[in-house]
Structures are given as C-alpha cells and as structure tokens.
Amino acid sequence: MALLTNNGQVLTWAFQLDDSDGTYTEKIQMIEHSFSMTLPESIDFELIHPDHLALITLLTCHPFIGTELHLPWNVSKGFADAAKRVSSYNISFKDCNYPPYIPESNARPGLAFSGGADSTACLLTMPENSLSVFMDRPLRKKASMYNKSAAYATIEHAQEVGFEVLKISCDVEYMRSPLGFPTDLVPSIPLIAIASQQNIDSIAFGTVMESAYRIGHEKARDYASSHHYRLWGHFFAAVGLPLYLPVAGVSEVGTSKIVLESSFHRFTRSCIRGSWPQSCENCWKCFRKTMIDTKFMHQRIEEEYLLSGLKIREVQNKLKAWPISHENVLAWTLQGSYGRLAVLLGSRLEGTERDLSYLESYYPPSLDLLPPKYQVITKVKLQSFLPAMKPEYWALVNSHTMTNWLNSPKAKNAKDTFLFVLVNEFQVN
Question: What pLDDT digit, counting tens, does each position of 108-124 carry?
C-alpha cells in the first residue's frame, strides 16, 4: 500500500510491503520504503491531480510489487481502466469516480530534462514554450559517483537563451539497490507532480532510437507494438499526459549532431561523473559520445584515442559483451578510420561493413507516436538539423536482426581475437 504525506512543500511517499513485495531480481531490490520530493513554492499539494499521484506511485514501485498495489485515494475511471492492463498484479483504489485531468486549450508540453546530449536534442525539437523539469537528485556521501555540474551548466544556458527549466529535488533513486531508478520513466515524476498546475498536456523524454527501437542490439523492434509503449504509453495517456518522444526516431549519432549544431555544444556533456566543463573520460558514456563528436569534427578516430579508451575498466567490460551495447554507434564512428585497434574493434561489429549513413537522419514513422498537436512543429525542427531517413532503411530500424552475424564463424573469430588482445595487452581479466 502507498501512503502520502506532506510537510510544507516536502511530499513523501511511504510504502507498506507484504511478504511478496520488494524484490525485482536477485540483484535488484527495494531497500528503502519511502522517498520524498520538494515541490516548488508555487505548487499546492492539494491541487495535484490524484491520477498523477497514482502514476508517480506506479512508476516508482512497479518492479517491486508482488500481488497487489493499493492506492487509498480516489482516481479517475480512465486510470482505473488502464490499471486493468497490468497482468502481473492487481491495482486497487478507494474509488474510481474522480474527474479526469483535462489540460486547458493553451496547454504546453513538459520535458523530463536530464541535461545530457539526448535530452538537450529533445528540447531543441520541441515548442519554445515547453517546460523542462530536472530531477535534482540529492547526493549522499559515498553512495554515488554522480556529478550534477554538467547538467547545471546546460540548464543555466537553456535559461539564458529563453527556455523555462525548473529543478525539483527528489531522492527516489535511493529506494533501490543497486542505486538507480526503479523504472526508466521515473525522471518524469517531478514534472508529473506539477503538471496540473502548470497546464502540461504531454510528457517528453530524450529517448533515442537505440532505446526505443533497440537498434544496435541483437534484435530491433517496432516500438509502437512493444510492451513498454503499450503499458506506459497507455498509462500516461490515461492521466491526460501522453508520451511525447521527439527523438525516438533519432540515433545517438543524430542527437549529437543536433547539439553540435546548436549553441548548447559548448555546455552540454552526457558524462555524469566529471566536473564541468571537463568530462571524466573514464567511463563508457564518455568513450562512446566522444567518438561520435570526434567523427563529426575530424572524420576518423585516432589510434591514440582507442589506445587510451581500451585502458578504461568500464569500457573493457562493455566491449566484452556479445553483442556490444550500441554497437551500431561504435561501428558508425569507426568507418573510415584505420590503425590496428580501429580495425580490430571494427571487425567484431556487425554494422562496420554496412552503410550506416542512415544514422545521420531521422526515422519518419516515429512522428506517428507523437501527440498530434506537436507532430508538425517537431518535424520542422528535426528537419532543420537532420534529413528524413530514406524508406529503404526503415526495416533496419524496426525489424533488423544481427543473430546470423553473431552466430557466424567470422564474428566469433573476431570476438576471440579482440578478447585475446584485451587480455594480453590490456590485462583484462
């Protein structure tokens, strides 16, 4: 059961667990049974729509629910109907006759803003009156390597050039062990909390094509028919805040290009460990994102960069995976590069020998997933940065598979050769 209390502007969720609750997997568990959010002074707790409180509750405890989630307040029939789509547990309420949330005619979209490159690219393809909300995660000593300085720099620049951005403190990530968000859409919960009083009509995320359509993974998918979209897309729509994913049809390659061609390029860093303006240059995200930017600016990756990158423990662990995460992005960056390490890494990437120029365009069918109100403006803004993807490439987005490649002798030999070098030259265990 979920309980809500407020002390001034501090809103706290507390969960009472049954014996079947609290465990998602052997490694992922709920270790704290409450979290808090500090609302802006202008927000009245009593005016938050109960459907929005229910959605926040569901987003934060969904993986840890055993058989039932009880919400001891009234919700709308729309939310109650959406709850029936959850098959793994039951959701009950005090009642379900509360009036639904209906934004006013002059409503605007909201963005769950992280401050990284993908999120910034998303902002640049949305209407200028969009409200961005950054979940300001309070830092506990020795609990996280997270550094907010880069996000703060991006937020400050966004405000300077006219975007409205709010920072709202929320400690939800500490509920979970290991540290992290219970579900991928949790960064939107501060925005959801203030949506009814800010006249928000949709919730945007910087979700890119690699995540939505899973390109660069073993099997791509049609995101519109995915379990993720059918579950969460339906819930968000049911509470009057449909999902708005402007860059779901854009690769990491494309979002990097959007940022590089904007005034944000001097401020935005996807690294969440380094102290701005420096990146940590010691993580997988730095390795990958720097390669993208380098390819755009210099057309090839230098052997010295790969040599230094392969010494990073996190990079080593990611490159041992089969397939490598975001391998399409790595393959794109290495095309046209030469040198022993570039060839060695490229040889074990399925995309290296294919035409990957489509990653520098946007996937037009993704626009059908946007709220109709924003389809035209997002299309216009996308096309100011990227061309539309040619139809002959569309199948690479929604149905491509690399299974045959992964099972081929050529791929297995390339993997073995690469791992041999990691072990013998970089002392990887």
Answer: 999 999 999 999 999 99
